[in-house]
Amino acid sequence: MQKILLVIDMQNDFIDGALGTAEALAIVEKVKNKIKDFDGKVFFTRDTHEENYMETQEGKNLPVPHCIRGTNGWQIHPELDALRRTDVIDKPTFGSRELAELLEKMHQKEEISEITLIGLCTDICVISNALTIKAFLPEVKVKVDSSCCAGVTPESHENAMNAMKMCQIEII
Fold first, then answer.
1. What does each C-alpha distance from 101 to 69, 90, 95, 129, 172 come to in angstroms?
2. CA distance 40 to 37
3. Among 10, 2, 6, 166, which residue's Cα sits nearest to residue 100?
4. pTM to 2 decimals?
5. CB within 8 A of 168, min separation 6: which ones?
6. Sheet holding 41-47, edge to edge
């Protein structure tokens, strides 16, 4: 049985860049310690947009260019990237089908006992990936460590935690 830690979108633009917040900056050290102390496989995702971001549906709804492929803002925070042992999963959408399919294949080869998510933003990409994974692997325990997550606002972070709890995702 294997345990998985998913580090969602801990990128410069979400920490101290275009969409950065004090709350996101405050979790970097906690995320770093969680990765260091985790006994299992660790995967990172990276929100990835192209130069035409402002022409996309997301760009029209959130008109702040961010995480444009190749920019500094797109990069994983350097202190966290130094801990990375696998390729980053680039995702052009909030929830990653590629990540869910990878986990499903891993589970078929060797049972996954639990998957823990941490990262940014709780209310957009963390919740989207948690629910996507729950749909692909309904019998695997999915957890979110709230102390290692931050939302767009503290209120939307709490709303996302409550929504995930209702969907049988364990909040720790």
1. 23, 14, 12, 12, 25
2. 9
3. 6
4. 0.97
5. 134, 142
6. 89-91, 41-47, 2-8, 112-120, 141-150, 170-171
Cis peptide leading into residue 148 (ω within 30°): no
**For strand 89-91 and strand 2-8, is the pairing parallel, antiparallel, or unpaired?**
unpaired
Q: How many CB atoms lie within 10 A of CB 157?
A: 22
Q: What pLDDT, in 10s, does the model give residues 49-84?
A: 999 999 999 999 999 999 999 999 999 999 999 999
- Token look-up 């797109």 returns 74
pLDDT tens-digit profile of 11-31?
999 999 999 999 999 999 999
Strand partners, 8: 45, 119
Give dist(CA 155, CA 90) in Å, integer: 28
Q: What is the pLDDT of residues 101-121, one digit of tens each?
A: 999 999 999 999 999 999 999
